[in-house]
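To: structure desk
From: M.T.
Subject: fold request, one chain
Message: Could you run this one when you get a chance? Sequence is below, nothing fancy, just the single chain.
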Amino acid sequence: MSCAESAAAAGDPSPAVRNKASWDAVSDPCLQDAVGLAGLLRRREMSARDVVSAHIARVEAFDPAINAIVTRTFDAALARAAAADEALARTWTGWRRPT
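Reply: Done. Structure tokens follow.
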């Protein structure tokens, strides 16, 4: 389930949604802490672009109701994520840290 889907399902208290909560915590980047996100990126389970796109979807799903984002710089965030993915692709050396 993506961030946008989980946002849409947030108001649904059905057992199917509640039972998927533990699965979502593992697969949904919006529910990960920084250490979890770093692990997803390091294991190449997600790209930085995927993580940023998921968070943008979450903002777009919830912000109309809470009006928390003043300036949306999504294009800049996606560009920086793309640069991070490219840098990781150039410097990745397996399980060891890049030198």
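Reply (cont.): Residues 54 and 75 are 14 Å apart (CA to CA). Let me know if you need anything else for the meeting.
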